[in-house]
Every structure is written in structure tokens, then in C-alpha cells.
Specification:
It holds the Pfam family HD. This is Bifunctional uridylyltransferase/uridylyl-removing enzyme. It comes from Gordonia tangerina. Its cofactor is Mg(2+). GO terms for molecular function: [protein-PII] uridylyltransferase activity. This protein is of the alpha+beta class. The strands form four sheets. Strands 8-9-11-10-14-15-13-12 form an eight-stranded antiparallel β-sheet. Strand 16 and strand 17 form a beta hairpin. Helix 6 crosses helix 7. It is elongated, with a radius of gyration of 32 Å.
């Protein structure tokens, strides 16, 4: 067959009518067979036969056996040191017919040593040669090259791995992320065909098994299935465009979708996103696994195996990954999925692929309503800011996120209908929740803020008004989460009205009193709901795309919110519940007493501590609990008959709480001055391997993939997360003074008293530290109500100040803020602070 006949046959295949049209895999196979036949025939004609000292070797698409309609022919004429003139004659006889027939050709002529030298110097060439396949001629010569390249690759991978990762990252920077590009590059983008080929190269180096462990029922069903989908789409793209093209353009998308029986361009975009995200997850796991599997040299060989550091009940860190503890039993612990995810978000460490696989296989579904512990872990995850994105993506790619939120399937990989959106709908929800995590201290209900952010567009993809559909789904989901009925109502209203403020602010006259009245009336004059929607509007805009949130939009919404606040009465102040008869009896008996009882969940306990009331007692009580590894989720501080009666709801970091008698002895020692609680908390926080909620990796840790720094793994992740006290949201102090003219069921604190409300991310011993600051300023705590909502605490103290002057209150607030985790710098800060709509809290009292 002449090369012109080969080209004509190729054209005929691509011009076949619908009845004779081959499907994408069939077309690729026919093209492979056709070109192999021509090359074999032409090679025999030129003397390229077995034992001839010549071989034709294919790389690229033909080497992989997946030749596309307009892909280049990547060929190597291999020879065994033959005379130059003879080699040139054979090469010309092979290349010129292809050139004359206008068949795209990428060619080279090499001996085996020359080819190995090229592979040793060029990462791209090496990875291409790993896919080499014998086509015609001396098969022993081809095998010598193929085996030599693979052996060389395995031998040198330790030194070449950083270059391999850098090469991939450079490609991703140029081509972008396929899952979130309007016109994705299927070949070179992140999550594309090149990434699966990279996984194959790592498998040849014996660093990975080639593919991440994904269940058949997981989204994308595994990287091989995802690869086949993208390859079929790329095949149709070539056929429709009539040229070699890698980017799916909008004008071609409908035709590609129809040819593959996928649907319209939106359906095609969803398939591409699903496949790309599956491959992206797989390449993340593959690079991380490969980095950890790199062979060690020198003294590194003598290094002990990485230790297992406990992070939560049943969750540990090992070799830079989140894994299950040896005694963890997923089949008997439904909340383990969320504890693993929250630990990953807190530490910034990835979840091990084997852990995800084990959870997917054995972890049961949470019963409805969820236990309070599971909801708390979800809130910790959602409150971690952008640290939450990777754990949720890992759960989603392995089918675990859909197990927690079955409603997620309708929005998974759903492409936006508006070009202004950067992300798919599901990723937009996650990004909105991540932005909301930096705003949790601006609202009185940070838990509802992050939940509302996660669910505000959950009604999309169902063929009706997504706000109305989503509001109904929010009721269903809120009940499953175990929220109180009134909180379920607020969550549903957030979803129903999440577009209210942006729509009214940008389309109505704000100077018209009826505008603010309409907003207040629509929201049922609910101050907390208005506060939540204000923060959600900003988070939603920031997660939509660049430029959607700016000074103009922020000023309009803040002005509208400020006007609506004026029409809404203040909400009731937090007050503790009355003491029980048992607590009263303990207080009247005097002395020290500690009582521990099981609370709502298997890992939650209620501890009542009674002691003679004295300055500094609250700080010591809270500190003793923290030193025993007990995290306070809520606390009620009261007094009676000269005794302090403080109740704490706690969750142990691991196992069960210590005996009540031991805590009582430690409390007495702390009161007597035998234990310096704050000093021990500082030492524990410094030495602890357990990162604080909202923490970041230690400054100076290497971030480049492939680093050989022992503090990071091969993919650039920190191996040992060092506690660094940075909060996702900035801490805030709010003051509420007595209003002599206030009316209603709760007019406020008594005359001479003030309410100090602290909103901040948590840290080890925070309540003890804050109480110590208050006591140091000579303030008396009349009562206190402490609540931990995920990773955010809302602590309310009723204080009698020794000096109620402005300077004294400012100094107290500054010292309280000083013991809170400082906020991480926000790259998206546009100068519109969280309190731009008025900077006030309750009855117009300024926030410090």
C-alpha cells in the first residue's frame, strides 16, 4: 500500500456516513491496525525484518495503541550501529512517503545507547519512551530499548522524581484545571490524559500500583474509566474539528455530546468534570504514594519508621497522611468518616487512600438524626476554611460524601449555566462554605452560617426554582443532621432567601423606606437570619468568580442590612439554665466535688465541678479539664451559697475521661497553687503533635513537590503538622451594656453589669486563658455561657467590672483577643471588613 493510499483510507474513515460510522474506540483501533500494517509492509520492503539490525518502534498514541484521527505518528527507527549511508537510505525510504502523503510525523533515528542517553537527559523523552512498542523488524533490538529504558527509569527515579513532579506542575499551570475550565485542554490539563500516563510511569518505577483505589460505584468509577471517557471525547473532537485539537470549544461541544450520546454541551461538561476530578484525585494519591515510596540512601536508610501520632478517637497521622488507628473498627463507628475528614482539615494532611477505601468498604451510614458528635465533626470540617476543600474532594471521589449527603448527587459536577461562575455547582458550594469559614466570628450562629453556605444551591439541577427546592431539601438535611427544629427553620430560610439581599440591594432604591421594610418583613424580623444572610451573600459572591464581590456591591448590601437592622428588635441575651436541686445541694454542702456522667453521645460527657467560689477558680477548672485532654463543647458558670457550680460538656481527645476523683485532686492542687495550670497548658501546646483546629503547617516547611526535605513528603505535604495558632476567622469581642429603658422578657444585664461576648476559633485551654485574663483585670464573672460550634466558640460572660471606663474595657478586650488564635491573612481581603454594615452589635453598642 502506498502512503497516499494510507492517507486516502484515513480520510474515508473520517468521512463515513452515520450508518457506517465507527464509534470512538473502534475508530482508534482501526487507525492503529491500518498504520501498523503500512509500517510493517513498508519496513519489510526496506529490509527492516527480524534479525536485520533494524526496528521500527512506536511511541505516543500508536505506542499506546490508541491512535487518534489527527495525532502525529511518533516513530523511532532503531538500528544496531549500522553504516550511516545505509541507515539514511532506510530512513528516507520510511519518512519521505509519509511526508509526501501529508501525514504528520514526529521521527528520530537512534541506536539503543543513543536513545537511552536522550531518556536520561530529558524527562519528557523518558516518559514517552516508557510507552514504546515494537512495530516491525528486529524485535530483540526493540526489547533491548524498552527494557533498558524501564530499568534506567526505575534506577534513577529517586533523583528524577522532583523533575517529574515539576514537569507536571508546569503543564498544569499552562493548561489549567480541566474540571473547571470553560474550554478544557483534555490532553495537558490537570486531570487529563497526560496525568493517567504519568501514573503509568510511576507504576513502571514501582512507586505506585498505577491507579488509586476507587470503588466501582464511586463517582468516575476509577481513573481507567475516566481516561476512556476523555479519550473518546478527544477522538470525537479530532473527528469534528478535522484537525489535531485538544481544547473542547463551546461551538463543538453540542456535536461531541450528540456523537457520544451524552447529551448537550452541559451534559458533556458534567462528564468531563467528573472524569477530570477522578483523575486529579488519582494523581494526587499517586504522587503522594510515590514520594513516600522513594528509596532511601545513606543515613536515611537507618531512620526509624515514622511514628503514629494520635489526632482523634480512632484517627492518627502516619508518614504525612491521615490513617486509622490500629484499634479502629469502621464497621462499628459510623462517625469515623467525619472524624477522619475533620482531622485532615485541621492538620492540612491528606487522607490515606487505603483509609478512604477501608471506610468506603466498611463504615456504616449514620443513623438519623445524627449524634451531636457527628454534627460537631462536620462543623469542624466546614469551619476550617479552604483546608476543607481537599478532604471533601477525597470523600466525594470515593463515594463517602454522597453517603453523608445523598442530595449531593444532583449537583455533583453540574456545570454552571452562567459564564460568570468559575466552579461547578458542587465545588461552588464547597468554596462558599470555605469563604464562610473566615466569617464565623461575625455572626452569632457560626454553625448555621457554614451549613447554609454548603447548602444554599443544593436545589439546582432539579428543573425548578432552586431556592424553593433547596429550602425543602434543607429541612430534610437539617433534620438528618439533628438540628433543633427552630434551627432547621432558619437553615431552610437561609437557602430560600440567599439571593434576597444581593437582588434587592442592586435593583431597588435603598432610600425608599419600603425597601428595608420589605427585607425585614420577608425575614420575619429575624435579626439572626439577616445577620447570616449578610455574611452568606459575601461568601457566595467571593466563591462565584473574580470581581463578583467588590466595593460597590458590598456598600449596597451593607447599607441595606444596616437599614433593616434598625427595623428589627435585638435578640434575647444568652443566660444559663437554673441550677438543679442536686447542684444546689452540692453547693450548700461546700467543699470540692466533681461529678462525671454520660451525655448525648458515646464520646460526650457532662462534668459538674463544685468548689468554694474564689477569684481565678473558673480559669483553674477549665485548665484542669484541658490538661486531661478534655475538649469543652459547652460550659455553664454559676454560683450558689458561696460555691461555684460550673458544668462542662466535654469530649475526650482519646478514650474515656479520667476518674472524677483524679480531676478533683488536680482541681484542689490548682486552687492551692501547687499546679500552675496556664504554664502547663503553654508547655502542652508547644510539645503536642496534635495541631490546633484551624492550624497551618509550620513556617518554612517546604512546599515544592518532590522535596527531599524530611519534613515533607514527596508531593510537598508536611509530614509532621506542627501546631501553629492561626484562626480561619478573626476573633471578635462584643460588648452589651445595660439599657435602663429596655423592655421585653430579657431587658439585659443588671445595672452595673456588662455582657462580654467572645467569638473566636478554638485553641487548647482557651476558656482557661480567657477566664484568667478577665480575673486579672479584676472583673467578677456573675455567670457565663460557653458554646463550641464546630471550630468556633461563642463565649458569653456577664461581668461586673471594677472600672467600667472606655479605656479599661478596651484593655480587657485587647488582652482577651491576645490569647485567641490570630487570623490567617486573607488573600481575598478587599478592605470591606466584616462589620462594614455598621460595626455594631445589639442595640448599637460598638464591637471592639
Amino acid at each position: 500500500m502506498a502512503a497516499t493510499d494510507l492517507a486516502a483510507t484515513r480520510r474515508q474513515l473520517l468521512q463515513s456516513g452515520q450508518a457506517g460510522k465507527l464509534d470512538a474506540p473502534g475508530l482508534r483501533q482501526v487507525l492503529v491496525d491500518l498504520h501498523e500494517f503500512w509500517l510493517t509492509s513498508k519496513g519489510a520492503e526496506l529490509g527492516v525484518r527480524p534479525q536485520s539490525g533494524y526496528a521500527i518502534v512506536a511511541v505516543g498514541g500508536l505506542g499506546r495503541g490508541e491512535l487518534l484521527p489527527f495525532s502525529d505518528l511518533d516513530l523511532i527507527l532503531l538500528h544496531d550501529g549500522m553504516p550511516h549511508d545505509e541507515v539514511a537510505e532506510v530512513a528516507d525510504g520510511l519518512w519521505y512517503p509519509l511526508w509526501d502523503a501529508n501525514i504528520a510525523l514526529d521521527h528520530s533515528v537512534r541506536t539503543v545507547p543513543q536513545a537511552l542517553q536522550v531518556a536520561a537527559e530529558d524527562v519528557s523523552a523518558a516518559m514517552g519512551l516508557l510507552e514504546a512498542r515494537h512495530i516491525a523488524g528486529d524485535e530483540d533490538l526493540s526489547n533491548l530499548l524498552i527494557s533498558g529504558v524501564r530499568q534506567q527509569w526505575r534506577t534513577e527515579i529517586r533523583d528524577r522524581f522532583p523533575a517529574v513532579v515539576s514537569h507536571a506542575q508546569d503543564r498544569w499551570r499552562r493548561a489549567g484545571d480541566i474540571a473547571h475550565r470553560a474550554e478544557p485542554d483534555l490532553k495537558n490539563g490537570r486531570g487529563g490524559l497526560r496525568d493517567v500516563q504519568l501514573l503509568g510511569a510511576l507504576a513502571i518505577a514501582q512507586l505506585t500500583d498505577g491507579m488509586a483505589s476507587l470503588r466501582p460505584d464511586s463517582p468516575g468509577a476509577g481513573p481507567q474509566v475516566a481516561y476512556a471517557r476523555l479519550l473518546d471525547i478527544r477522538t470525537e473532537l479530532h473527528r469534528i474539528a478535522g484537525r489535531p485539537r485538544e481544547q473542547v470549544r463551546a461551538q463543538d461541544a453540542d456535536e461531541i455530546g450528540a456523537a457520544l450520546r451524552i447529551g448537550d454541551r452541559f451534559d458533556l461538561a458534567r462528564v468531563i468534570s467528573d472524569a477530570a476530578r477522578t483523575i486529579s484525585y488519582s494523581i494526587d494519591v499517586g504522587l503522594r504514594t510515590a514520594g513516600n515510596a522513594l528509596p532511601r540512601r545513606g543515613l536515611a536508610k537507618l531512620r526509624r519508621s515514622p511514628i503514629r501520632r494520635p489526632l482523634d478517637e480512632g484517627v492518627v497521622e502516619h508518614n504525612g497522611e491521615i490513617v486509622l488507628a490500629r484499634n479502629a473498627i469502621p464497621s462499628k463507628d459510623p462517625g469515623l468518616i467525619l472524624r477522619v475528614a475533620s482531622a485532615s482539615a485541621r492538620t492540612g494532611l491528606p487522607i490515606s487512600a487505603s483509609t478512604l477505601s477501608r471506610l468506603a468498604d466498611y463504615a456504616p451510614e449514620l443513623r438519623e438524626p445524627w449524634p451531636a458528635e457527628a454534627l460537631s465533626d462536620l462543623l469542624v470540617l466546614l469551619g476550617a476554611g479552604h483546608h476543607m476543600v481537599d478532604p471533601i474532594e477525597a470523600l466525594d471521589r470515593t463515594g463517602l460524601w454522597g453517603r453523608l449527603l445523598p442530595e449531593w448527587g444532583a449537583v455533583r459536577d453540574l456545570p454552571p449555566r452562567d459564564a460568570i461562575h468559575t466552579w461547578t455547582v458542587d465545588r461552588h458550594l464547597v468554596e462558599t462554605a470555605a469563604h464562610a469559614g473566615s466569617m464565623t466570628t461575625r455572626v452569632s450562629r457560626p454553625d448555621l452560617l457554614v451549613l447554609g453556605a454548603l447548602l444554599h444551591d443544593i436545589g439546582k439541577g432539579r428543573g425548578a426554582d432552586h431556592s424553593i427546592v433547596g429550602a425543602d431539601l434543607a429541612i430534610q438535611i437539617g433534620n438528618r443532621f439533628g438540628l433543633w427544629p427552630q434551627d432547621v427553620t432558619v437553615l431552610s430560610e437561609m437557602v430560600r432567601h440567599h439571593l434576597l439581599l444581593p437582588s434587592i440591594a442592586t435593583r431597588r432604591d435603598l432610600d425608599d423606606p419600603a425597601t428595608a421594610e420589605f427585607v425585614a418583613e420577608t425575614l420575619g424580623y429575624n435579626r439572626a437570619l439577616l445577620e447570616l444572610l449578610s455574611a452568606l451573600a459575601e461568601a457566595d459572591s467571593l466563591a462565584t468568580g473574580p470581581g463578583v464581590w467588590g466595593e460597590w456591591k458590598a456598600s449596597l448590601i451593607n447599607d441595606l442590612v444596616r437599614r433593616a437592622f434598625r427595623l428589627i428588635d435585638g435578640d434575647e441575651l444568652a443566660r444559663p439554665d437554673a441550677l438543679t436541686s442536686e447542684q444546689i445541694a452540692l453547693a450548700e454542702a461546700g467543699g470540692f466535688s466533681v461529678d462525671i456522667e454520660q451525655a448525648d453521645g458515646p464520646h460526650t460527657f457532662r462534668i459538674t465541678m463544685v468548689a468554694p467560689d474564689a477569684t481565678g477558680l473558673l480559669s483553674k477548672m477549665a485548665g484542669v479539664l484541658s490538661l486531661n485532654g478534655l475538649r469543652s463543647h459547652s460550659a455553664t458558670v454559676q454560683s450558689h451559697a458561696g460555691s461555684a457550680v460550673n458544668t462542662f460538656v466535654v469530649v475526650p481527645l482519646f478514650g474515656s475521661p479520667p476518674e472524677a476523683g483524679l480531676i478533683r485532686q488536680q482541681l484542689m492542687a490548682a486552687v492551692d497553687g501547687k499546679i500552675d495550670v496556664l504554664a502547663r497548658l503553654d508547655a502542652r501546646e508547644t510539645e503536642s503533635p496534635i495541631p490546633t483546629i484551624g492550624s497551618v503547617s509550620a513556617p518554612g516547611a517546604a512546599t515544592s513537590a518532590g522535596s527531599t526535605d524530611p519534613a515533607v513528603d514527596g508531593a510537598g505535604h508536611p509530614k509532621n503538622a506542627v501546631p501553629a495558632l492561626f484562626a480561619v476567622a478573626p476573633p471578635r469581642v462584643l460588648w452589651v451594656h445595660h439599657d435602663a429603658e429596655a423592655t421585653g422578657p430579657d431587658p439585659g444585664p443588671d445595672p452595673g453589669e456588662v455582657i462580654l461576648e467572645l467569638r473566636t476559633d478554638d485553641r487548647l485551654g482557651l476558656l482557661s486563658r480567657v477566664s484568667s485574663v478577665i480575673e486579672r483585670h479584676g472583673a467578677q464573672v456573675r455567670w457565663a455561657k460557653v458554646t463550641t460550634l464546630g471550630s468556633t466558640v461563642v463565649d458569653t460572660f456577664c461581668l461586673h467590672l471594677a472600672d467600667d471606663g472606655e479605656a479599661a474595657r478596651t484593655a480587657l478586650a485587647d488582652d482577651v483577643l491576645a490569647v485567641c488564635p490570630p487570623p490567617q491573612p486573607r488573600s481575598d481581603d478587599d478592605g470591606n471588613g466584616p462589620d462594614a454594615y455598621g460595626g455594631t452589635a445589639r442595640s448599637g453598642v460598638p464591637i471592639s
